[in-house]
Each structure stands twice: as C-alpha cells, then as structure tokens.
Amino acid sequence: MTDAVVPAGAPAAARPWWKSAVVYQIYPRSFADTNGDGIGDLGGVRAHLDHLVWLGVDALWLSPFYRSPMADFGYDVSDYCAVDPLFGTLDDFDALVREAHDRDLKVVVDWVPNHSSDQHPWFVESRSSRDNPKAEWYVWRDPAPDGGVPNNWIRSWSDQPAWTFDETRGQYYLHCFLPEQPDLNWANPAVEAAMQDTLRFWLDRGVDGFRMDVIHLIGKDPTLPDDPEDLAALSHVPLNDRPETHELLRGLRRLLDGYDGDRMSVGEVYLLDTADVATYYGDHDELHLNFNFPPLFTAWDATKWAKQIARAEHELNEIDAWPTWVLSNHDNRRHATRYGGVEARSRAAAVLLLTLRGTPFLYAGEELGLEDAVVPADRVVDPGGRDGCRGPIPWDATPERGWGTVDPWLPWPPDTGTRNAASQLADPGSIAHLYRRLLHARRSSAAWQSGSYERLDAPEGVLAFQRVAAGDRRVVLINFTDRPADVAATGTIEVSTTREHEGETFAGHLEPDEAVVLRP
Length: 520
Ligand code: GLC
Ligand code: CA
Hints:
Helix content is about 25%, strand content about 15%. It has about 525 residues and is an alpha/beta fold. The protein has an eight-stranded parallel sheet. The site of alpha-D-glucopyranose has 10 residues, from loops.
C-alpha cells in the first residue's frame, strides 16, 4: 500500500503500523540484568516492557541476542536460530514476544546477513577444505600472484586488509569487519536460501520485522575490483553499492510480504549519501525503511539540519518512500554527548526527532538524557571503540541502579543518581516526561504522524516547520541556539521543552534551546 492511496488523516489501521510507529532500540547487554552477572538479558527486557508503555513507543528493536562468541558483542552470530545462554532461552524470547504483543508493542529483531561468526558451523566446514559442501558459502579467493591479498579492501575500524589467509585452504577469506566475522557468499543460491530460512524461523515465532545489519553489503561485485585509490584508506563498508544487492532485497521483500500483518524491514544502509540510500527502497519492492545516517553525523545547527531534512524530503518523496530518523544508536556517541551535554539541547533534539515526517528510532536511555559513559582504557572492550554509548541503563537510584550488581560489564553513564528511570518518572519536569508528552501527543494527531512537511520562515538559528494533514496541523519551532529568539507563529503550545506555558497561547518567544509544538 502506498501513501498516495491513503488519504492523510485516515484511520491508523489503513496505514502499515511502521509508518506511524516510534521504535525504541534495546541493546540487550546494556538494558537490564536479572541474574546479577552484570550483563543485560531477555528477562531484563521483559521486566521493563511497562517502561516502554509508559513512555508511549510502539515497537522495540532488539540488537542481537543470538548465539555468539561475542567478538563483536553479538554481531558475530554462530547460530541464527538460537538465543545465546547469556541472554536466556528461546522460551524467554517467546514469552517476550507474547508479553510485548499483549501490550500492543511490536517486536523487531536484528538480523546479521552479511557475515556470520567464524565459529558458525557453516564457516568451520567451509574452511575445512576447498571441496566440502559449504566450500562456496563464504568469499574465498586465491592469493595475488605475489602471495598478497586479493584486492585493496580495508576492513572496518582499522587500516588492515579485509582478508585473512587460511592455511588449510591456502586461500584468503573476505571479512568487511573482524577476521572473526567472515562475509557470507550471497552469490551462492544455497546461502540465500539458508538465510531466508533464518528469517522464516523468527517470522514464524511472531516477530513484526527485522533491522537488517549492513544490508547494503550482501551483494558484491563478483570480480572484487580494488576500491578507488583516493578512497582506499576508507573501509570497504561505505563503498559497497551494488545491483546484486537490490536483486537479493527483492527476494527478501517477497518473503516478508508473503506473511500476514505488515512485517517490516529496516535496512542499515551505511552509505553516506541520501540519494544512494533512497535506492534501497526500490520501487516499493525492496526494503520498507532504511536508515539515513547523514543527519546523525550533522552538527546541532538549524541551517545544517534544514538542509538534511530538505535532502531526505526531496530524495524520498520523489519515490514515495517513507523516511526514518535516528540521533543515537549503539555504534555512535549519544547525541546528548555529541551536542555538548546540555540537557536543554537534548530536550530540543527530542522535539526534532519526534516531529519530523517519518519513523523515529529512539535509542534506550536517550529518554533519560543519558550521555556516554566515560570508559577508562583498561575497560574498553569493543573492537570498534564504541563502549561509551553502551553504558548500562540505570533503573533506580540504589547503588546497583536496578541491576544485580554495582559493577556491570561497562561503567555507568554520568549522573545516574538523577538520570535513572525511577527518579525521572517521579519528576514531572524530567526529560523522560518530556519524551512521554511528545509521544502521547503524537498519537492523537494525523498531521504529526503522517502529514506533509513544510519549512516555515524563522530567524537565524531557529528551525520552523509545519506538518499538515486534512483537518489537522502542527507547527514546530526549535531554537538551536543558547540565545532567546522571537518567532512569528500562532497557536496553542501543546508541548514545550521547558513545560512552561503548555496549553497557553504562544506568545512569539522562545527561550534559549527551547522547542515547542503548537496546535491550531
Ligand atoms: C553494524 C552494527 C555494528 C556492527 C557491524 C558489524 O554496523 O550496527 O554494531 O559492529 O554492523 O556487524
Ligand atoms: Ca544477566
């Protein structure tokens, strides 16, 4: 179903759920621990589903909880159809889906199709000889004539080759990430079929969708040419953009659309040009949604943001594709930290994220205004150095912060004495309550959920836009500066980041860092 045939403001049921949903990302290791080993688990997610309901999000996305040696903390999967014992059991997962659905929360799971763990039985077999049944399940190549690597590709988080030599086969295997994460060979139909079966496994258990990890990598140029010399210092990851992938995505889309209930795919397309990202929607026959990362890498600046929004609106409207918005995730510094650690600004960022046209993705803890944990060198564990944004979520003000231990796998983020869920829920002036007011107000407005986006005139440093649907309208004003600003706009303040004057007529004035949503 396309936007064009659904009148704006039509009942929610007429639109697929993922167009009006707000998705909440959970990084299971860091969310909540129920057995005191200092590592979050599926029981912890179940225990806090009511927090998500209180907040007013519609779906949760679980980062990987599959069996894994954890070289990349679960993005190295050794069994696509099993829960790692660290996180619980398949029964725990089934219970989580049931309990989420009972609360009208959709469940989206991560899916890591580009690479498995080197401990996956498929790779163990593949590397055992050149002629075993899985010999062609990974990307193997003979050494270059001088014995060196087959091409100049660089792996992620390093200046090292994306190739590792295997003594047994006398060949190199490709890994766009760690050597422990060999790339699967999607050019082999047996791999495509096996990976499609892993989707069916979770679809049959009732999941509502998949976040598809670095999905743009699955199709590769069969000749594996060198990356261009001038870009060759970059990892191959942001450079791989191939027609082979689009063909594979059409197959995945047919599979998902063959199930009832609008099962959704959102691609992690790590290409840093919105026009390139747009192609992964296909002609309504590839991914339902895609992450668009250029805005995530944009500074907190009204003009720069206006450009990013215009870009996304232009590239995606043209092909009737639905945008997504992300400010924080498990791979990047939290936006509270990136934007300078000023809470008023984090509040304004919440208004931006939750009022743009498209599906917002929140990262657990941003509703508490969390900043990155400060991780001393001797506690860094991530091969990509992304530990800070993975600091554990504090649930209350006790020394254990609601975990079974005072000392979880990573250090706590700063200020958890006040930045914890219990303290913030008890304080109507907290940032958590702001997220809640925004999320609940959003639900009752067709303009907010699905209306058009139109930028409005505003003084420098202020971003102003309206969202319009039949019979409904919202005006959003965001002061990106730490100076007060006067803006000629009219309406009633539905939500303000300061909570002052909500329900009153807007008087044309924004405090420093203030953002407001106005209704007619
Ligand atoms: C994606 C994930 C990241 C992971 C990488 C390799 O970018 O978000 O956490 O390390 O893929 O799977
Ligand atoms: Ca645990």
